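Bug: token stream looks shifted between consecutive jobs. Job 1:
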Amino acid sequence: MRLDLVPRTRRSPVLDILSPALAFVAAVLIGGLAVAALGVSPGEAFVTYFVTPLSEVWSLQEIALKAAPLALIATGLAFCYRANLWNIGAEGQFVIGGLAGGWVGVATHGMGGFTLWILPAMLIAGTLAGAAYAMIPAVLKVRLGVSEILTSLMLVYVAQLLLDYMVRGPLRDPAGYNFPQSVGFDPAARLPYLMEGETLHAGVVIAFLAVVLATVVLARTLFGFEVRVVGASPRAARFAGFSDARLTLAVFAISGGAAGLAGIVEVAGKIGQLQPEISPGYGFTAIIVAFLGRLSPPGILIAAIVIALTTIGGEGAQIDLKLPLDLTRAFQGLLLGLVLGADVFAGYHVRLVPGGPSGRTAS
């Protein structure tokens, strides 16, 4: 006997909506069992993880600030993954974008006169640098057939080491008591705050606008149609005249540009200077966000908020309940696995088939 997955003749819209919700409930229940095994009340942990962060203004702002780069990066990655291409190096493109845009902020430090151009120049430099960095694995794949998974991943470490070198050397603040960091950016090089006296900055608006733009592009343009067709059926796409090479370069440029923009948004917003580490792993976490959101920009926005909520809640649980932060990462991975599994069962049903692996009954 064996189990076969048989495609459903008609995919239920209700099941499509319910499956991620059921996956989340299952993840919470499993997480509750893990918390109970550690000697903590599951109810208390649930309140700390999911209720307390939504009940205070500062934590709501922190959720938005963490969700913004995740949504921005994951939206760019959705273009690659929908085209069946695998950019695993968004973390490196994030770092390069932050470094390139931050260099503009350092170079213009203390500049007088007209300064309104500085912040747009930083955002453009970060976006272009991220796109250019993503072009390396894209060109290697198109020209030499090199796996984009390996090259994009290995380039992450190159970007991190380059940032570390620059802030310890050429971009280090000469008056910074030998600390490995750049000068603090001028106000003209910082993203404006949305509310006086609060931490919420314009990067949240940039991320939201990027999600809206991506939604329109994927659903209403010929390019979006090309991305969907190439991902679903490469042979049909070639027959229709779509170029695999051109699309590869385009989607890598989009995903790298989005990651680079997220990098400079983080540097010019929350951090305010260059330092050896500017990312807590946003580029890798965004991969989870992209698939939790089913590669749909609106879904990605919701998934980014959920992941940001669990991250803030996990930090609170670490302080208040002495739970390990690794438990939060395990929960996020579990949630991804359950959502992907629920997606499978939403599109297929299980059939029991007699016989061995080949489908033949035993004699």
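Job 2, same session, no restart:
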Amino acid sequence: MHRHGIGRRSVLAAGAAAAFLRARPAPAADQPALRLLTNWYAQAEHGGFYQARAAGLYARAGVPVSIKMGGPQVNNMQLLLGGQADIMIGSMELALLAAAKNLPVVAIGTSFQKSVTGFMVHKDITAIEQLKGHPILINTEGRSTFWPWLCARYGFSDGQAGVYTYNIQPFVMNPRLAIQTFVTSEPFAATQKDIPFNYLLLSDLGYHTYGNVLLATKDIVARRGDDVTAFLRASAQGWKDYLYADPAAGDREIVLDNPAMSAAQLDYSRAALRRIGALGEKGGVIGTMNDARWAELHDFVVRDNHALDTPTWRAAYTTEFVSKLDMTV
């Protein structure tokens, strides 16, 4: 996301969308909003939600939604468990960890069908295997998620791993260095500065996680299941509109929350999300999840992260709500 130091539309099929959005009545004036907590400052990676709110998709679906930004000093899980949010943007790994600890949290859907995380590398590097022995800067979360998998699969060692502080200056200064980045962000900064690079996306390397997974409290799932369904359906339409139609409404909302976000960055990020097929393959259902993908990641976590295999892992997610989604890419 927008965390570095030296900077970071087919037409809407309105008829079908309006049909499902009209299926639920307008919310009562006193109905509390579903409170969405993002995982960073407002940016294109949250654009579908901002688009859905700005374009009135949530309102027409009968579910008011508020959006609160996360950030480097925000503990999203703590806020979710403390009742300060109803839904948060997190990860599959975080959901599995919550299930292992019997926390009352469950993944209800996702934003992207693949992770937007990868490695920015110098132009002489064209394959992940070539990074063996090279210094690689990764963040704290990465150390406990994909890094053990990379070590197990590609023979990397912990001695290679340094701390990434969201500043690409070390990359510029060290021709052997690789950094963990988001395909939507740090590459934009490098492009703006005419810094040559290649990019290796984790999902292309075989790490098949969903990106920006939506985690909800089990209380919200139990009490407001219809609202959760309406939220996910409207969000799917928001994402399709934001990436493949007119994103102006969503962009305005993003900039209101995060004035530092530039139009050039937003355009670059949307193009990157389209290029990698973040919403899925043509004809695929936006926001969906399946059992096979969750089982695959669980196996990674147990085998490569040496986590204990517990029967509670299946409580990490539910497909109850995504089974009702039908908006396609």
